[in-house]
Task: inverse folding
């Protein structure tokens, strides 16, 4: 953990301090936040290598915070929660967490799981989310900018989030349900038409020939994938 930056998002001050001390003793650099809103601000500024995230917090809970972080980057997120429920674990993993640890937990176990998450990231087992670039298209996820042939595009918030989600998972087929949950939220799970409309808009903006797309490809009846064009 030497030199790794860890962001701790936790509303319980005693647990937050305990986690900070655990990582600092292992050589990590830490910052912390008491709720999801503050955590997202810290995430932008600190750009951590790893995030530990509580679920039940004021202002912005862990679910929404996890969703927002995952829209920006593939930084490993370890959920730390008192919720001992299989459905909660499944939901957290579906939203992009890499691990789910229930409280109380052993500091040694937490560090071990953190090392595993960082090792997987270093080995490329998680998709890079810094962006995508070739001679035609550039997607800067961190700065939320998209360029075609060097020209900055005007995208709506939803258009950008959809494109960024697909690009972060380049080469993977994402189902309609996954896309709706991560871009629009769980309340839209029965509305795949939203995806078709926005993919069509994006194709008009980023594809050289929208009728024969090279980047945003359909998997009939399943979903969409972002294809790398070297």
Result:
């Amino acid at each position: 953990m030497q030199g790794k930056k860890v962001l701790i998002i936790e509303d319980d001050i005693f647990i937050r301090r305990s986690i900070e001390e655990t990582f600092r003793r292992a050589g990590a650099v830490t910052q912390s936040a008491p709720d999801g809103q503050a955590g997202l601000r810290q995430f932008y500024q600190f750009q951590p290598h790893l995030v530990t995230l509580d679920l039940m917090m004021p202002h912005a809970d862990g679910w929404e915070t996890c969703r927002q972080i995952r829209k920006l980057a593939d930084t490993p997120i370890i959920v730390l929660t008192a919720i001992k429920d299989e459905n909660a674990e499944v939901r957290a993993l579906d939203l992009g967490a890499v691990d789910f640890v229930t409280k109380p937990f052993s500091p040694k176990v937490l560090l071990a799981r953190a090392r595993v998450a960082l090792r997987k990231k270093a080995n490329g087992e998680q998709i890079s989310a810094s962006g995508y670039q070739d001679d035609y298209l550039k997607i800067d996820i961190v700065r939320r900018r998209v360029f075609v042939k060097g020209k900055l595009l005007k995208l709506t918030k939803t258009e950008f989030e959809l494109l960024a989600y697909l690009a972060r998972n380049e080469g993977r087929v994402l189902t309609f349900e996954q896309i709706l949950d991560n871009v629009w939220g769980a309340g839209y799970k029965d509305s795949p038409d939203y995806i078709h409309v926005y993919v069509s808009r994006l194709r008009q903006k980023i594809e050289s020939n929208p009728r024969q797309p090279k980047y945003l490809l359909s998997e009939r009846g399943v979903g969409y994938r972002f294809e790398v064009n070297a």
